């Protein structure tokens, strides 16, 4: 099920660009307006607002599930079909509120559309975060991210970006650069230094703060213990002593194949525009 992706030095891989493994593609503008005069970022923001207001059962009806995709391919598929990859907060409600275990078993484990960036414990953010890993026969990969100035020097924090508010640029030899508008980056303070149970952030549902006891209001975080990380959050359905789906992974790399839940972009106006 798991397969590595061949890098193509001249290819630009974006959250809204197609991805092919064997030949280069031309670059495309990221934030073009649609027929309604809305940019991709505006559409995505309003789609997320819509999802946040919906109950899990309604969201499930809107969602298309595809299984067995490396995150690179999930990005390409979402672009091709004009959809966003469901953010972590959507999965959190489905996993913790849905009683249909058969649905959960069939449609998880999955990537979320929520990307997290963090440094090793107690290491402050510098000008850049670089995440390295090896995959399939020791093929080396890296992803770099230039840290906005306002976040430099901060320790034990995570930076969070939602799909499709970013660009993933192939700069050659399996090296990628993550680019994003600074206004799309959210800071999660007191990001845990160790695996364990924590209270989730109110909007992103990412664990933060001090360790707590296992319970319905806490989530279990899995993270890399001693190095930096750039990648999408991962959700699965497993039982923790009666709590199913309460765990959140922030350690799997882009090449690993999991499922993905996609939701069509919407151009519906926000409440402030009505």
Low-confidence stretches: 1-35, 267-274
Strand content: 25-35%
Shape: globular
How is the biggest beta sheet arranged? 11 strands, mixed
Mean pLDDT: 83
> With helices defined by DSSP (H or I, 4 residues minimum), what is the helix count?
5
The class by helix and strand makeup works out as alpha+beta
Spatial gap, N to C terminus: 46 Å
Give the SSE map.
Layout: E1 12-14, H1 40-53, H2 56-62, E2 64-70, H3 71-81, E3 83-85, H4 88-97, H5 101-107, E4 110-118, E5 128-135, E6 139-146, E7 158-162, E8 167-172, E9 175-179, E10 186-188, E11 196-200, E12 207-208, E13 219-223, E14 229-235, E15 239-240, E16 243-244, E17 247-250, E18 257-264
Parallel strand pairs: 4-18, 6-9, 13-17
Antiparallel strand pairs: 1-8, 2-18, 3-18, 4-7, 4-14, 5-6, 7-10, 8-9, 11-12, 11-13, 14-17, 15-16
Helix pairs in contact: 2-4
What does this structure look like?
- The protein has 274 residues and is an alpha+beta fold.
- It contains five helices and 18 strands.
- The strands form three sheets. Strands 2, 3, 4, 7, 10, 11, 12, 13, 14, 17 and 18 form an eleven-stranded mixed β-sheet that branches. Strands 1-8-9-6-5 form a five-stranded mixed β-sheet, with helices on one face. Strands 15-16 form a two-stranded antiparallel ribbon.
- Strand 5 and strand 6 (139-146) form a beta hairpin.
- The longest helix is centred in the first third of the chain and has 14 residues, at 40-53.
- The radius of gyration is 18 Å and the shape is globular.
- The chain starts with 11 loop residues before the first strand and ends in a 10-residue tail after the last strand.
């Amino acid at each position: 099920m798991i397969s590595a992706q061949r890098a193509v030095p001249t290819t630009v891989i974006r959250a809204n660009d197609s991805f092919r493994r064997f030949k280069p593609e031309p670059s495309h503008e990221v934030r073009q307006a649609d027929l309604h005069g809305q940019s991709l970022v505006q559409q995505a923001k309003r789609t997320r607002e819509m999802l946040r207001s919906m109950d899990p059962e309604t969201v499930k009806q809107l969602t298309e599930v595809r299984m067995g995709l490396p995150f690179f391919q999930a990005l390409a598929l979402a672009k091709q079909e004009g959809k966003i990859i469901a953010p972590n907060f959507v999965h959190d409600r489905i996993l913790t509120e849905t009683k249909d275990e058969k649905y959960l078993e069939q449609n998880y484990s999955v990537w979320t559309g929520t990307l997290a960036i963090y440094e090793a414990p107690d290491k402050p953010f510098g000008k850049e975060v670089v995440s390295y890993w090896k995959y399939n026969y020791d093929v080396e990969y890296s992803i770099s991210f230039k840290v906005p100035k306002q976040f430099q020097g901060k320790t034990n924090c995570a930076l969070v970006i939602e799909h499709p508010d970013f660009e993933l640029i192939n700069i050659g030899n399996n090296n990628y650069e993550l680019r994003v508008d600074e206004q799309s980056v959210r800071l999660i303070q007191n990001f845990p230094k160790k695996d364990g149970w924590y209270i989730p952030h109110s909007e992103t549902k990412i664990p933060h703060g001090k360790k707590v006891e296992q319970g319905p209001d806490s989530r279990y975080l899995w993270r890399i213990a001693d190095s930096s990380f750039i990648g999408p959050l991962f959700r699965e359905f497993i039982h923790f002593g009666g709590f199913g789906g309460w765990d959140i992974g922030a350690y799997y790399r882009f090449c690993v194949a999991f499922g993905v839940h996609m939701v069509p972009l919407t151009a519906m106006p926000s409440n402030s525009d009505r």
